[in-house]
Amino acid sequence: MAKALVAFYPLAGRLGVDSDGRIEISCNGEGALFVVARAAELTIEDVKDFKPSPELRRQFVPRIEPSSVILAVQVTFFKCGGVALGTALHHVAIDASSAFHFFQTWSAFSRDSDDHAAVELPCHDLHPDALTTFYPLITYIEPSGPLAGEVFTISRDQIASLKRLTCGGDGATTSTFCAVSALLWQCVCIARRLPPNSEARLDILANIRRRVKPPLPDRYFGNALVRLGVTAAVGDIVSEELASVAGRIRRAIGRMDDGDGDMVVARKEKKDDGARRSKATLPETELQVVSWLGMPMYDADFGWGKPLVMSRAESTRGGNVHLMSDGLAGGGVRVLVCMEARNIKELERLLYAKL
Q1: Is 90 marked active-site?
Q2: What GO molecular-function term can you cite, just one (predicted)?
Q3: N or C: lower Cβ tally within 10 Å for the chain?
Q4: Taking residues 227-233, what's their average pLDDT?
Q5: Catalytic residue flag (residue 218)
């Protein structure tokens, strides 16, 4: 890991605040937090579903102290010989693409030794005029009731059927992301029993490394995300065919490809008074989808073979959804949802009824 941190040196630094009150990274080389733990009573079978929960995070992800630490790692050895690698990375410094690039590099150095590891080192160079940064506000509120997290698995065959169902009348193909997001948006609006005349919003966080002009290299280190918003009346979303809902999402992404991706959006959170960060939630009319589909989630082979499963340890923000590849079923998708506990079972029923 030390070798990888030489190339990914900001992860070995500390968060601070400059004279203007803005967050900055001090590249002081203080290093990452590294913890070794032993789960003497547990086997991989006991936790292999890795459903995000406070307990899963407590067991396998180290508590970050002090809070200025950017990278924290815990290696847990099970009594069966299995190993879990739990990490905490500060989003101020890095997005998912850069995080997986770091894990690929670290595992390659561990597996193949420094001299033989085939790695692409991160790119830290960026011309100051290449990107324009602005800060749209996201309003988080105090949840009106308990939140719950759930994992829904969609098989490869179900994905193929869903993509056929969401193809546009013009013959346009639909990506896995658009198909699953359309299904989720419609089902969530129904499960929440939203008023038909209210406005629903779907937010998408998109990687724009290849979309800006000139494009950034895939190995660009940092955050290169744009936040897209799709809005429509709830009555339209719940009554339209899934192909029409998917078309709304596809057109929003298309507008970014037509030039709206010239700006990088660093999200800034705005919370109502009294809404604590750890338990904040989006308004029930909003849903935010983050996609890890297509990312090298299962490429981190430290010499023990590819990971059995990779997942978030905890999901505590109401209205947040993460899409990721299912390592146990090739071609399937795992959908991690955090929302109001009173509605999540209805979402499950609707989701599988439409598949």
Answers
A1: no
A2: acyltransferase activity, transferring groups other than amino-acyl groups
A3: C
A4: 93
A5: no
